[in-house]
Amino acid sequence: MVSHARWKFARDEKVAQGIAEDPEVERRREEISLAFDLGQAVYDRRVGLGISQTELARRAGMTQPQVSKLELGGTVPTVPLLARLARAMEAMFRMELFGSSIRVTFTDLDGDAPEAAGRASRPEESQAVDGRTPQAAQG
Hints:
Layout (H helix, E strand, L loop, with lengths): L3 H13 L6 H27 L3 H8 L3 H8 L7 H10 L2 E8 L2 E8 L6 E6 L19
Antiparallel strand pairs: 1-2, 2-3
């Protein structure tokens, strides 16, 4: 049986040698990263407004557990849901794609105080925006 550390070392060694990861694994990794970034942007905006998950859920026609799951990166929201969330948080939603990076923002309707989450497509390029880390669910 291979230990986790040995498996991780072998994977990192392949990456260093330029051996590509399985395309399906890479696609799934990017989807998970996007879900996390979207959730982080919702969390940041909600906290910036000073409202609870329950209040956001009421405004967006969702349940509190759905908001929690979304904020923790457990789901990739649909475009209609993102529109409802933007309205519920009185914000503009923007997703910018540039190169292999994505930037997600919910911005005040007047353009002030952007709340953003960003990512690079490869884990070694990832960096926390403003030093943020995943947040625990709050009710």
